Amino acid sequence: MVKITIDVIKKLRDQINAYLRIKTGTSYLKMAYKKVLFSVCFVSKKKYFRIRHEDEVNFRPDDLFKKGIDTVKQGNFELFKFIGEKIMWKTIGIDNICLIQEIVRDILQDARFKQWNFNQFIAMSKWKAKRGLPCNKIFMERMRKRIANGEKNIKIPDSGEHFSYVVVNDGPCYKEDSMKSTRKGDYMEFTNIAKEFNMEIDVIYYLEQMVGMCARFISNECFNHCYWIKL
User: Fold this and answer.
1) What CATH number has the domain bearing residue 199?
2) Has residue 168 got a pLDDT over 90?
3) How far apart are CA 45 and CA 48, in angstroms?
């Protein structure tokens, strides 16, 4: 079906371009053929992923074509991307007969018991002294206090500079009002320091992030099936 669609669209393109040349007297105005998309999974409004076929039918491309999917956002940790990609490839596979809910459930269950590499928890962020992320401001303020207390292996990045971090389980943190903090910035740590002191990764935090990401794959009942369509 994909091959037939490619051939038909190419013939249609040539016919339309011939007609445009007759009507305009030039070849300036043209219709272009780009790709056939099959299959496509619509996750929610303006969020979808699909396999694209250009000149040849290829159900095993190097990358999926994605739009609005959170896993491709800059700064996400590798584990987040890995789980998201695994769900998408399984869902979009031509031999898949499972609902996306079933795929998400099975992959999350496997993720709970797997041993992950430290590097898969590393995330990137950009430090902005003004109008930056609240969690980054909390984190940098903690780092400044530690520098003031004599820690010498901490380097605050310049404003606009990227830095890598992990979220660690280094005991409870408390806010100024003595209440236990749940703020991400109170549990962030520079990657090099977390490695040097062999800090424990807060796996629960990362699993919660993955659950949130997976929930977005199945958030809309009318879009949660993989649609096999040609465009």
Assistant:
1) 1.10.132.60
2) yes
3) 8
